[in-house]
Every structure is written in C-alpha cells, then in structure tokens.
Amino acid sequence: MDSFHRKYMSRAVFLARKGRGRVSPNPLVGAVVVKNGRIVGEGWHARYGGPHAEPNALTLAGKEARGATMYVTLEPCSFHGKTPACAPLLLRAGLKEVFVAMQDPNPRVAGAGIRLLEEKGLRVHLGLMEEECRLLNQPFIKAMRHGLPYLMLKSAQTLDGFVARDDGASRWITGEAARKKVHRFRSEYDAVMVGIGTVLADNPRLDVRLSKGRSPARIIVDSGQNLHRELYLVQTASRLSTYYLSPPASLSAQDELIRQYRLIAVEWENSKKGWEKALRYL
Asked: Per DSSP, which regions of 26-143 are E strands?
C-alpha cells in the first residue's frame, strides 16, 4: 500500500520541481488529486504571487475532487497572503483524505493548516516522503528557521589542484556539460556571488545563457575600492540587480560610481558578524 501512495507523492514532487527559479521566496509545492486509482487533477506553484499547487490541482479535478485523495508536498497554508488560504479550499472541495509530505516551517502556518483540516473531519496523513520534500525546499526551510539564504558553492580545479594558469590567464577548466549544469543552477537560484578577484580577472557576465530560465541577481564582494566603469557587471547593473558588498569607507569612496550605474550598496565587513548582517539583508 505504501508504494501505491508513494507513486502519487512522487508525481507531486516532480510537479513541484517545475517551479524552480520562479516562485522564490515561496516554497516549491506540487499537488495531485487521485480518485479510484486515477489522477483527476494535478498542479504546482508556478510563479511567485500566482495560484498555489492545491487550487491548481482542484481546478483541474473539478467535481471529481469530491471523495478523492490529495497528495501534496507541503502543508496547505492557513492564512490569506497574495492568494487565498489553501486549507479551506480543500475542505470545500469535499476531499476524502490528504497525504501531506511535511509540515510548513513558516511560523504563520506551522501545523495550523493540518489542524484546520482535521478539526473539520478531513483525514490527514503526515510524513509520506518527508525527507525528499525537505531536500526539495532546503532554501525555504533555512529562510524560515534562520532568516538566512541557502548557499551553494561552485568551485572548479584541475586534477593536480590548480584553478588557473601560473600567469593568471583565464581558461576553461570545466567541460561543456558542467558549464550547462552551472547555468541551470543559476536559473534556479536568486543570486550568484563572486569576489572582486574573479570580477577583475574574468570580467564575467554571471547570467544564464546555456539553459532556460531567468538570470539571477549578481553579488560582488570587495574588501577594497576596486570597481571601475569598464566591468560588465557595473555596466549592466541598471538592467539586472547587482549588489556591491564592501566596507563603509569603500562604499563612501565609490559613491558616485555606485549611484551612476545603480549598483545596490551593502555594508559588509569580513567577519562572522559582518557576513551574517549582509546575508540577512540579502
């Protein structure tokens, strides 16, 4: 019986992934409505501010939702935000039961959606494929619990441990497949961060070209006063959000350039407290 239910929750997880790069700061959520062993409706949260997975699935199911079972990767929300609360929609649809992968870590929900469903007589099963769904929403979970962004490190080096030639000249270390994967990751994350050394050596674009999806914001970390007008990230800052993290004195010294090219200045110090303050802002 567990494999029967896992099949439909796996489908919900697959659907949730379709929202990558489009729903932040909201979580990735997928939902499937099943009746008599047949999927009658499914949906996912496709864009920030748009309908959630559950109403999308219920709309597709229509009258077939009555007496059906829903599989959803995250606890239905219980408050009205940019869209109406989802939990009451499930009750009005006349579902028989709901399988919920994990509780919503958002303090505004945190079990309230499940309690509402159960209090109104809807059977709720919590925990099916919970680990998979937690992995799916690690950025959202960290933001809710710690108020900090989720970070992924991208690094490349040769088999003998080098990252560049002796003379510092830039050349590709990674292959085409790896570069495409990096661009896919860029499209799924909100921002890409680099140090000023990389900016000066490579004059990178940090956009998405080898994959579908939108380009992320750019973040430059600089402990000195190294910005100049010829840098691509500076010249394009008015078109794509570009954050410049630097000590207060450095920001003040470069204020004219920062304003002219519309960079977003963020005070930063290279210390534990300095990093935490900057990351919370971001």
From this structure: 30-35, 38-44, 69-72, 97-100, 123-126
What would the pLDDT profile of 217-252 be if each residue is shown by its tens digit?
A: 999 999 999 999 999 999 999 999 999 999 999 999
The rounded distance, in Å, linking the Cα atoms of 225 and 222 is 7
CA-based Rg of the chain, rounded to a whole angstrom?
Answer: 23
Annotation says 54 is catalytic: yes
CATH class (in words) of the domain with range 1-146: alpha beta
Domain regions of the chain by residue span: 1-146, 176-281
183-203: pLDDT as tens digits: 888 888 899 999 999 999 889
Alpha-carbon span 63 to 14, nearest angstrom: 24
Q: Give this prediction's pTM.
A: 0.84
Q: What residues contact residue 256 under an 8 Å CB cut-off, 6+ apart?
A: none
Find out whether 74 and 100 touch, Cβ atoms under 8 Å: yes
CATH domain 176-281 topology: Dihydrofolate Reductase, subunit A (3.40.430)
* Interval 245-276: pLDDT, tens: 999 999 999 999 999 999 999 999 999 999 99
Confidence band for 173, pLDDT divided at 50, 70 and 90? low
Catalytic residue among 54, 64, 75, 188: 54
